Amino acid sequence: MPVSRETFLSNVWRDGIFKDKVLFCTGGAGTICSMQVRAFVALGGNACITGRNPEKTEKGAADIASVRPGAKVIGIVADVRDMKAMDAAAERCAAELGSIDFAIAGAAGNFLAPMSQLSSNAFKTVMEIDTLGSFHTAKAVLPYLVQSVQKHKNSGKAQPTGTGGRIIFISASFHFRGQPLQAHVMAAKAAVDQISSSVAMEYGPHGITSNVITPGPIAGTEGMERLSKSDERSVKESKAKIPVGRWGEVKEIADATVFLFSEAGSYVNGHVLVVDGGQWRTTGADMGSTWRYPDFFLSGAAVEGVKGGKKSKL
Ligand code: COA
C-alpha cells in the first residue's frame, strides 16, 4: 500500500544519503521495521528483508520498493532461529545487491502472559526469536559490515562516500523497571541489549557501531495490538502515563534509525536509544485498570482482549 513520505520520515534528511548502500533487516515486513527500511530506501538505499511468512515477506519487499523508482528490495524467507538460514540470507543479499552496509535485528515475538501461564516452550520461543535471533543476525552480517566500514571509514570527519558498517538491535524497555506479564520478553530483551554492547566493544575497533533502539508504544503497530487494549478508556489511561501525552509514530522510530545510520550518528556506539516519549520512567508494575496489579495475578485469570492472547488448544 503506498504510504506518504511524511508518515515514515521527517522532512529533515537529505535524499541520497544512503545511495547504493544496502540494509539487511530481519522481521522487515513488520509494522515498525518496514518503516525503518522504507525510510532507508527512500533516502537512496536498497534492502533485503527477512521473515518467516513467505507471502508477508515478499509483499512487504515489493511494497517498500515502491517508495523510490529503481529501488531494489528483496524478500528472503528465513527464520532467525536458524543460523544456517541467516547465513544463507546474508550471503544472498550481498551477492544480489553487492554488499551489506547496515543491519537491523528486528525480528521479535511477544504476547502477554503471567508466569503461571507461561510454559517452558513459550519462554524458550521468545528467547529463541529475540535473543538467539539477534545473535544469529549479528553473526551473519558482521563479516559484510566489516567490509563496508573498510570502504566507508568512520573517521568522524565528513564522509564523502557516506557511512557503512552499522547495526541496530530493536529492543524494549520492559526490563528497565520491571513489567508484569513480560517475564519472557524482559529476559530476552535484556540479553539483546547486551549482545549490542558486545558488538560495540568487539567490533568498534573495526569502525563498526552497534546500538539499540527501544521503541515505546507506537500507534498502529502489531506490537500495540498484541500488548494493549484498544477501548477508549484503556487508550486514554495508557497515553496519560506517557510524559509527552501521546503514543509515538512509526516515523519517530524511522528518524532515530536514519540518525544512527547517518554521518550524524558516527560517534554513537554501544548506546540504547529509547524512543518512547519518556514512557518507561512512569510505567512498570502499574498496569492500569485493565490488568490491575496485584489483583490480576491473584485471580489466576488469562489475558484476554488483545490480539496476542493465548490460543486455546481445544
Ligand atoms: N500466552 C501464553 N503462551 C503462549 C501465548 C500466549 N499468548 N502465545 C503462544 N504461547 C505459547 C504456545 O502455547 C507455545 O507453548 P506450548 O507448546 O507450551 O503450548 C509456545 O508459546 C510457542 O507458540 P507457537 O505458536 O508454537 O510459536 P510460533 O513460533 O508459531 O510463534 C510467537 C511465536 C508465540 C512469539 C507468536 O506470537 C508470533 O509468531 N509472534 C510474531 C509476531 C510478534 O509477536 N511480533 C512482536 C510484536 S511486539
TrEMBL record:
One GO BP: fatty acid catabolic process
Enzyme Commission identifier(s): 1.3.1.124
Coiled coil: none
Top enzyme class: oxidoreductase
Recorded GO MF terms: 2,4-dienoyl-CoA reductase (NADPH) activity
GO cellular component assignments: peroxisome
Ribosomal protein found in the keyword field: no
Catalytic activity: a (2E,4Z)-dienoyl-CoA + NADPH + H(+) = a 4,5-saturated-(3E)-enoyl-CoA + NADP(+); a (2E,4E)-dienoyl-CoA + NADPH + H(+) = a 4,5-saturated-(3E)-enoyl-CoA + NADP(+)
Protein name (record): 2,4-dienoyl-CoA reductase [(3E)-enoyl-CoA-producing]
Entry keyword set: NADP, Oxidoreductase
SUPFAM superfamilies referenced in this protein's UniProt entry, alphabetically: NAD(P)-binding Rossmann-fold domains
Key word Nucleotide-binding present: no
CDD domains linked to this entry: TER_DECR_SDR_a (cd05369)
Highest taxon of source: Eukaryota
